[in-house]
Amino acid sequence: MTWAGLLVPAVLLPAGYLALEQVLHRRGDAWPVARSAAVLAAGALLAVAASWPEAGPAGAGVAETVRHLLATMAAPVLLALSGPVALVLRVLPPRPRRVLVRLLHSRWARAVTWWPVATVLAASGAPLFYLAPVPHGLHGPLMVHTALASWLFATVVAGPDPVRGRPGAVTSTLALLVVAAVHGVSAKLWFAAGAGPAAELLFVGGDVVEVATAVAVWARWYRRTAPRPAAGPVRGRTSPGRGAAVPR
Questions:
Q1: C-beta separation of 82 from 38 below 8 A
Q2: Beta strands at 245-247 and 236-238: parallel, antiparallel or unpaired
Q3: Which keywords label this protein (predicted)?
Q4: 202 — phi, psi (to 5°)?
Q5: 228: left (phi > 0), else alpha (psi -120 to 50), else beta?
Q6: Which tens digit of pLDDT belongs to each residue from 158-190?
Q7: What number is the average pLDDT over the span 197-226?
Q8: Under a CB-based contact definition with an 8 Å cutoff, are residues 142 and 1 in contact?
Q9: Hey, CA dihedral for 95, 100, 105, 107, is it positive or negative?
Q10: Which of 24, 144, 150, 167 could form a disulfide with 76 if both were Cys (CB 3.0 to 4.6 A apart)?
Q11: Is 72 among the domain residues?
Q12: What total number of domains does the chain contain?
């Protein structure tokens, strides 16, 4: 596959996202800065993957693994944390918004966002790409599948986009452990097959991305469950003869 093709989503995804965000700002609506930073970081990682040198001192296999980690694991997780679907729902006019909501509530959408299905899809990428005898011509479509599966899984367990039946933090963490275990075993089997430093990088890099996703899962849980400070008493003066507090 031509890695330079990653420059297209590296530019279009952040540009489209920021254009939609500007629509909100012109209406006077706010949007979380952290989400905008996440999509910019995703685009930056895709650009790094596209421009990574073909081979270095450790060999071409390591360069391929770096690109795979950035483009199909790290960048999709950041994109999921940016909440692109939620942003589109905020910007769309009423009629297109209703169409998109119906699509999100369809049987197909409920099936692929059911956490066991999303877990299987996310876990399947590494063994298929590194262990299965997939023809070289199919590596490009397989990379697209892996990236989309990573984005879908991160959306289900940690992202701000609307998902019906989103699992709780404990279930999400268990699903993440399943994905991490499959990736770890795949890396070890690939190492046993002679991949050497590339397999070690896949093992360590996969763990880094999955730990970061776990942090996002529990950060979401904390934001939803942390007690909010109670509003203080309204300060005022007493109106003669009524005893009611009149706000200043």
A1: yes
A2: antiparallel
A3: Cell membrane, Membrane, Transmembrane, Transmembrane helix
A4: -60, -40
A5: beta
A6: 999 999 889 999 999 999 999 999 999 999 999
A7: 93
A8: no
A9: positive
A10: 150
A11: yes
A12: 1
Torsion from C-alpha of 59, 63, 68, 71, nearest 10 degrees: 180
Place of tokens 């979401």: 220
Enumerate residues 6+ apart whose C-beta is below 8 A from 19.
none
Q: In the predicted model, is pLDDT for residue 237 greater than 70? A: no
pLDDT digits (tens, 9 = 90+) for 62-114: 988 999 999 999 999 999 999 999 999 999 999 999 999 999 999 999 999 99
- Sign of torsion over alpha carbons 129, 208, 58, 192: negative
Structural domain includes residue 242: no
> Distance of alpha carbon 235 from its chain centroid, rounded?
45
Joined tokens for residue 99 = 């169409």
Q: What is the DSSP string of 140-202?
A: HHHHHHHHHHHHHHHHHHT-SS--TT---HHHHHHHHHHHHHHHHHHHHHHIIIIITHHHHHH
Please state the φ and ψ torsions of residue 238, each to the nearest 5 degrees: -85, 130
Count of alpha carbons within 13 angstroms of residue 178, beta-carbon side: 17
**Among 71, 72, 63, 73, residue whose Cα is nearest residue 198:** 63
Residue 213 sits in which domain range? 3-224
> Is 233 within the bounds of a domain?
no
